[in-house]
């Protein structure tokens, strides 16, 4: 006869009983234990009912959580996502929900450095400022008579501090620099190519340069939610001069992806909620030039000239169309240099070599560049 084991309901000792037995008396404590009949089908049904109950409870929990998420998304517009990103978007602080003023202030710092009397004098930087004179600005150039307006390192620093001082939601800021730029070895480990970028004040030989890290901490980091900053940097090695976390990599046809350069930084190098966008003359490994190849009769920075001409060309430009148009203007000028005669041929070769720079775009956040309207 087959048997099975149960435990005494009183003392817990294990007992062996026949399969069909309904009760058994414990041989130790003498207590009688009632035994349920063994029914595999009944046990299976009970197990199914328990599983169904747990599944129903789980689905109710998921539904409740999903409703909470949907409500949160509807009440707060999430920023900074893009299907063009090459890397996951870094975690950034929640922007302030302060209402944005519809009539913010406009403020600009225009800085042109010619380096009179120095080996690497520039002829087009001041002309670049004259082309940008339609802005409401603080201008710093060597031709200025007041000592505080000469583009020394001290004055440029003070001007950048003034640019963001008291910045509020709705404000629009512009920093336009035309002058020399260069690179040095990066010792903080926050540059993908291993080099920091820098700008050259007129007194750089004695006072030194201004590093991209300082520019970022001065005019990018303090930018509040609802404010925007545009930087127009006409200088060599200026692709990432503001140390913005996202770099727009565009090919010749205008297709693009966003590269994440912020993941290397030990501290996130973005704004305090505002939007910072930089147009630069060239990539970090390229040089920019003063040239007459674009204007025909005036020496200008190639980047500044192409930027202004592209912006004037049509109303309602997007950032993508503007960047692509700037590049096309430089490419067309380079391709159109077919002159006759030995001297003209030599000049055309020089101009083609000069116009090898490719303007770049970087930003504090990713966005769809062909749908976002450009507006200073």
UniProtKB/TrEMBL annotation:
Give start-end ranges for the coiled-coil region(s).
none
Pfam families recorded: Peptidase_C14 (PF00656)
Matching entries from Gene3D superfamilies are given as: 3.40.50.12660
Instruction: Cite the Peptidase C14 caspase domain residue spans from the record.
Output: 105-366
Into which family does the record put it? Belongs to the peptidase C14B family.
> Under what name is this protein listed?
Peptidase C14 caspase domain-containing protein
